[in-house]
Write a structure and sequence with these properties.
single chain, alpha/beta, 3-stranded antiparallel sheet, 16 helices, binds flavin mononucleotide
Length: 399
Amino acid sequence: MLSYLYIAGSSNGRTSPFEGEYLGSNPGPAAMFSGFLYRNIVKEVLFLFPADSVHEAFLKFGKKLGNLGFFKTLIAKLWRYDNFILEQNLVGLTFKNPIGLSAGFDYDADLVEILPSIGFGFNTAGTLTHEAYEGNSPPMLGRLPKSKSLLVNKGFKNKGVTKVLSTIRSNTNLLGISIGATNKPYSSFEDMVENLVSGFRDAENFNNFNYYELNISCPNLLNIQNLNNKLDSHSGLKQVLTSLEKLNIKRPVFIKMPLEKSETETKELIETASPFSFIKGLIFANLAKDRKNPTFNTEEIKKAGKGGFSGKPTEEKSNQLLRFAYKLCHDRFLLIGVGGIFTAEDAYRKILSGASVVQLITGMIFMGPQQVGVINKDLVTLLKRDGYNSIKEAVGAKA
Ligand SMILES: Cc1cc2nc3c(=O)[nH]c(=O)nc-3n(C[C@H](O)[C@H](O)[C@H](O)COP(=O)(O)O)c2cc1C
């Protein structure tokens, strides 16, 4: 145990890549034991309760832990894994490791204090909107364990950009905020775009975060379904970006891309974004809507309520779009991969497909929070196995 604590907490000498990294087993005993407990006991119990309540309880608990310095340090010692091979400077930001928390889990930025200890290299809060929204009618979350997926029907539940950003005291990690249009009826597309831009205008009053995500691809905005569909078209996206350009945003903006688009449609969106220099990256991709996806367990999908799906049903398509985008525009945009990452192999596949960094939610819920450090540690093993001295060398190698 002690040797693992030493390894997990060490920042590693910089004389040789990989040196001093493999004194413990892989994954280390503390993380392995936590994972075993989580998957066999904690998760089994949590999954007996409604997903909405468990999520809320987890956020409250995480927020409390984040205020307790001792626990933060202990958790970091047990779970966090650092290695300079995993570090990258991209679009003016330093990513300590390539594993980020994707938008939607920490929607009101309650976990900003605890997430670095768990091991994330960056984390996105939101999606936030100009006005607060209490969420779609419950249930807002569901579980499809056999399909390794979650049903999501939140519709941007959040307290609003200004209120959330006012509560963030500090962030030791890279923190991003995802912004979308408030989920309410509008008289026109122009009104909705104005609302979305107002969200960015609100956020520009704060210096306590590092990057933006522009969410044009949420599948469960029940109050604005028709208008929202236009956001991920050439004309709709161009209108949004033209309005946003006027804000003269200096922090990098990444677009959260839709999943279920053809390569031709994706190319059109990429070409639309390309002339706007404040757009620095593209995230592939958001939730799945298509219930015919063969990854779903037939019984589970039949019973699923309203909403979009995360996890394994998003993996193959998001990797395909990533490879496509890498070939098309990796010299123009930072590419971020998300969808179905449960293990280091899953993350590595996205990196080889063209992602410089990746994000996850569902893998953490199914495998346990310690999995973030495990993935980072195992990623180093995979890079070493394939003869890479840094992540950069591996990005896009199999695109
Ligand atoms: C509970 C939940 C809420 C989500 N809410 C948002 C959101 O508000 N904005 C967004 O861009 N994506 C949202 N997503 C999508 C995720 O950011 C991610 O793209 C998707 O879940 C695929 O990653 P995963 O398989 O690792 O979960 C949400 C996903 C989940 C599971």
